């Protein structure tokens, strides 16, 4: 695969964002309907108790859709705590250029913590009412005290959401916010061309605090006979890949499908694993052929779409839930271990890796910045951590002492039913060490 420096990869990303291939995809207004009645779709009224602060603690109760300014309790801390009122399974910022300082965040999941479904289980008709929340924030340093706003609620009848990811780069314009792939608990994937809240407000000609938008029809429905999706990953060149509960991998040409209004498959690779695919990732947004997957047996596999039926097994870890992420700019990948450690493997044909972050809990997700050699990971013990894993100036090895930053820790006291937001955690130095995975 072609390798880039971090600076080159960042420049490629910026250029692709300026000349996005999704700009030609139109918004169809008949797919959306502005409604005033949201009963049955929104979560029930609920509240959470949150304690914040470092030296001086403060406890408050947040009702549904309310928020806390972290700067009220922690000096210089820029951020918010939101009560979305749901069990969150999907969260993703809309990719857009910084022409203005408004950023949009999509949140989806289960309407309550009492809902429980098996993966690929179809829900009852009366349980399919659900919502995707779209929040707006100001990223301007001068407007950090500006309140976050629940701009729009997308009401739908497709059930609880397992994952939601926006198409990379951006499809943002005056009419549309972006293009989203939404994975539902029944294993189906729907592609939505989401309208811009300001455009829809202009159509209604009234100003409401929150707009309720009913999804009348999705642009595309991606499904295959006897294949239920378990994870999704956007790639470059208008591609979307997903793993299935039957251990298969499917790659779709989303851009071509949207322009021709007909789903187009690039590759369907059956039975790459005997167990469901746990996680899927592209090695790079600018490599249209190289895919990584992990399954519930702990195998990490590499797939080359130029020869899709020759799956290569890198190694097997002793855990059923392995998160993976391509580095983007270079070869190798990041992966999680059973002990909560995140590591970087240096290549696809080697088993040499470096320790990065240590969570002491199950790692839920790993993400990599396209502009820096920095990774972020979150885990079940409430930790959100970042660490540099690559640099253009020096090749990081086991001898380097690199700072590991804990952005925050969110803990829950079951006795008092109170969340505790912990901040001010000092960076720690964790020695890199080489591991040879067997």
From TrEMBL:
<dbReference type="InterPro" id="IPR015943">
    <property type="entry name" value="WD40/YVTN_repeat-like_dom_sf"/>
</dbReference>
<dbReference type="InterPro" id="IPR036322">
    <property type="entry name" value="WD40_repeat_dom_sf"/>
</dbReference>
<dbReference type="InterPro" id="IPR052416">
    <property type="entry name" value="GTF3C_component"/>
</dbReference>
<protein>
    <submittedName>
        <fullName>Uncharacterized protein</fullName>
    </submittedName>
</protein>
<keyword id="KW-0804">Transcription</keyword>
<keyword id="KW-0539">Nucleus</keyword>
<dbReference type="GO" id="GO:0000127">
    <property type="term" value="C:transcription factor TFIIIC complex"/>
</dbReference>
<dbReference type="GO" id="GO:0006383">
    <property type="term" value="P:transcription by RNA polymerase III"/>
</dbReference>
<dbReference type="InterPro" id="IPR001680">
    <property type="entry name" value="WD40_rpt"/>
</dbReference>
<dbReference type="GO" id="GO:0005634">
    <property type="term" value="C:nucleus"/>
</dbReference>
């Amino acid at each position: 695969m072609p390798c880039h420096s971090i600076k080159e990869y960042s420049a490629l990303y910026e250029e692709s964002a300026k000349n996005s291939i999704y700009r030609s995809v139109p918004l169809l207004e008949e797919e959306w309907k502005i409604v005033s009645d949201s009963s049955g779709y929104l979560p029930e009224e609920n509240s959470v108790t949150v304690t914040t602060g470092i030296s001086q603690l403060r406890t408050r109760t947040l009702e549904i859709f309310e928020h806390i300014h972290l700067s009220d309790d922690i000096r210089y801390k820029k951020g918010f705590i939101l009560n979305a009122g749901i069990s969150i399974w999907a969260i993703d910022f809309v990719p857009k250029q910084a022409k203005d300082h408004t950023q949009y965040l999509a949140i989806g999941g289960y309407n309550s913590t009492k809902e429980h479904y098996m993966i690929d289980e179809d829900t009852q008709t009366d349980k399919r009412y659900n919502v995707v929340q779209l929040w707006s924030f100001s990223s301007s340093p001068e407007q950090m005290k500006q309140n976050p706003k629940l701009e729009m609620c997308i009401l739908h009848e497709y059930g609880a959401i397992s994952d939601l990811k926006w198409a990379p780069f951006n499809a943002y314009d005056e009419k549309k916010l972006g293009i989203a792939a939404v994975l539902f608990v029944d294993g189906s994937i729907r592609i939505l061309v989401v309208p811009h809240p300001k455009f829809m407000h202009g159509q209604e000609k009234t100003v409401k605090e929150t707009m309720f938008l009913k999804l009348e029809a999705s642009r595309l429905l991606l499904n295959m006979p006897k294949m239920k999706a378990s994870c999704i990953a956007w790639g470059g060149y208008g591609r979307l890949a997903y793993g299935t509960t039957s251990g298969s991998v499917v790659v779709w040409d989303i851009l071509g499908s949207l322009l021709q209004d007909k789903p187009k498959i690039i590759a369907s690779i059956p039975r790459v694993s005997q167990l469901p695919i746990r996680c899927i990732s592209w090695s790079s947004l600018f490599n249209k052929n190289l895919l990584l997957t992990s399954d519930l047996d702990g195998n990490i596999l590499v797939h080359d779409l130029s020869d899709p039926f020759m799956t290569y097994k890198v190694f097997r870890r002793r855990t059923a839930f392995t998160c993976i992420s391509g580095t983007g700019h270079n070869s190798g990948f990041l992966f999680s271990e059973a002990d909560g450690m995140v590591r970087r493997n240096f290549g696809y044909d080697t088993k040499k890796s470096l320790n990065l972050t240590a969570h002491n809990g199950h790692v839920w997700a790993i993400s990599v910045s396209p502009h820096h050699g920095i990774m972020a990971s979150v885990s079940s013990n409430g930790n959100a951590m970042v660490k540099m894993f690559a640099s253009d100036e020096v090749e990081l090895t086991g001898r380097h002492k690199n700072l590991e930053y804990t952005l925050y820790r969110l803990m829950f006291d079951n006795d008092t039913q109170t969340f505790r937001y912990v901040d001010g955690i000092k960076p720690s130095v964790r020695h890199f060490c080489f591991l040879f995975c067997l």
